[in-house]
Amino acid sequence: MTTQTPLTDAKSSDFQVNLSGRYKIDTIFAIATWSAIAISILVLVTLLLSVLIEGFPRLSWSFLTNFPSRKPEEAGLLSALAGTIWMMVTITAIAFPLGVGAGIYLEEFAKDSWLGRVIEININNLAGVPSIIYGLLGLQVFVRFMEPLTGGRSIISGALTLALLILPIIIVSTRESLRAIPDSLRQAGFALGATEWQVISRQVLPIAFPGILTGTILALSRAIGETAPLITIGALTFISFLPENLQSPFTVLPIQVYNWVSRPQQEFHVNSAAGIIVLMVVLLMMNGTAVLLRNKFQKQRG
Amino acid sequence: MVSTNKSYVTTPEDLVTEAVLRAKDVNVYYGSNLAVRDVSLDIPYNQVVAFIGPSGCGKSTILRCFNRMNDLVASARVQGKITFHGQDLYGSGVDPVEMRRRIGMVFQKPNPFPKSIYDNVAFGARINGYTGDLDELVEDSLRKSALWDEVKDKLKDSGLALSGGQQQRLCIARAIAISPEVILMDEPCSALDPISTLKVEELIHELKQQYTIVIVTHNMQQASRVSDLTAFYNAEATETGGKVGYLVEYNRTEVIFQNPTQEATQAYVSGRFG
């Protein structure tokens, strides 16, 4: 140990160090942030537990493979599960190319202009519009106006409505992923005589892709959980057949859950708890896929 | 204060006829701000030209006019005339994509693509439709940039795994792989340690045999070591509180450093300001 000598001739009386007071604020802040996370996790765990306790015993293979029924013990969610998968695929096919395309255009090609800024503000606003509004739009445009094409209250009408709903989210997340790519990479590409599309397709998109994918799958998870717009466009709640094509009537998991929970009999409430578990497993699988894909692509560019 | 300073330019007479790039009365604006004014100079064939001067004097801006990188900045506007082999660089006859293959660029911060070393060097050749043997081209470019011996066993490794100095030489290899005539270097050593800097400088000496090089540098020793010609830029305050850069003096490097005609040049190269 060496003896401490003052480094400068500033008098120590010039400083009121008050270390213990400053450390106390550190501690208070740490506790406050810890409580914030504890409360949110507690709420989530309570919700999960109550659903699991009520619904888990009801889960069985026949629950997944039966059609809805008037008798709660025979009722299953086959048509809802099939409807959800049909919806998921159709929404992806519509919203992914449109959203990513629009995001690329706005971020890479569009000049900074008055019109561009108006579009940007509108997209951000659209992301915050309540989903029921999209349901009303879908009802008027896809179900009524375009009925000859969509077949009315069909899978394609529902998918178009939900695709509209998540389009702004996909556009915004695409733009954010693109914006995170350092400009120096684009400049390097241009300086080597690359065209705009060559720079985007070979340098920018491969790096931005994991982020775009994650954003898209998270947006899809939101679409899969939506109920209100689909009820608005008149998705049926009792369907005892599987969808055959895009113009088939349909139901989806959240609607089936909503239907069961609004019945008076306790047995149906158990069914809805089990339905929630199935829905959550579907969502978890989607999010898991997002993480796996992201890791795969990130490794590839290593 | 309105300055009546007229740029004092002497492109050495015997070199004028061989100019690859020629700037004539070039003004560059960002939005409505004049950033650099009245720059006229010639870049002669197979010479190394250094641009020196204090920060904000417009030397990088002028450099980026030579391969139209300023096109990518929406607010940038170039006035005056820049010619490449006598052809107007900003005229309708010149395609910026084709032109950038012939006028390469190395940036201040090494910016290899997050791909393998091989793919980094091959990228420019691939997008420009190179028909020769790609393996040979990659090896040749890495040899020319004095990197081959260090990376020949790990061409599949990421370019980002290299050290900063190696990354910069990789960027130089990438630039020469598409056989440019001119290489523009924007402070290529400012992010490198002294040993890496030395390697890049040696490389510039080698490359001089085949390429015309324009290098922006803050390091005056570097300018005096690597260049044949030096252009000194300075900046002056405008009435609106901004700064506008201009070319003060352009001559053979030894003249600029030992016997400049302008007082400002003398002051700058002797370290009295800047």
Overview of the structural elements:
The complex is a heterodimer of chains A (302) and B (274). Chain A is an all-alpha fold and 302 residues long. Chain A folds into two domains: 40 residues; 241 residues, MetI-like (MetI-like fold, Orthogonal Bundle). Chain A is built from twelve helices and no strands. The mean pLDDT of chain A is 87. The N terminus of chain B is likely disordered. Chain B is α/β, with parallel strands linked by helices and 274 residues long. A ten-stranded mixed β-sheet of chain B has the order 5-4-1-2-10-9-3-8-7-6, sandwiched between helices. In chain B, helix 4 packs across helix 5, helix 4 runs parallel beside helix 7 and helix 5 crosses helix 7. Chain B has a domain of 191 residues: 3-Layer(aba) Sandwich (Rossmann fold). In chain B, strand 7, helix 8 and strand 8 form a beta-alpha-beta unit. The chains are: A mainly alpha (302), B alpha/beta (274). The interface between A and B is medium-sized, with 21 and 27 residues.
Quick structural gist:
Chain A is mainly α and 302 residues long. Chain A is 73% helix and 0% strand.
Secondary-structure element sequence of chain A?
Answer: HHHHHHHHHHHH
What is the fold named in CATH at topology level of the largest domain in chain A? MetI-like fold
Largest interface: A-B, 21 and 27 residues
Q: Can you identify the CATH class of one domain in chain B?
A: Alpha Beta
Count of strand segments of chain A? 0
Strand content of chain B: 25-35%
Number of domains of chain A: 2
How many β-strand stretches of chain B? 10
Structural class of chain B: alpha/beta
Query: How far apart are the termini of chain A?
Result: 47 Å
Mean pLDDT of chain A: 87
- The CATH architecture of one domain in chain B would be 3-Layer(aba) Sandwich
Strand content of chain A: under 5%
Q: Biggest β-sheet of chain A: count, sense, barrel? A: none
Task: Report the uncertain regions of chain B.
Answer: 1-8
Spans of chain A of 5+ residues with little confidence (pLDDT < 50)? none
Percent of residues in helices of chain A comes to over 70%
Helix and strand string of chain B, N-terminal first? Answer: HEEEHEEHEHHHHEHEHEEHH
Helix content of chain B: 25-40%
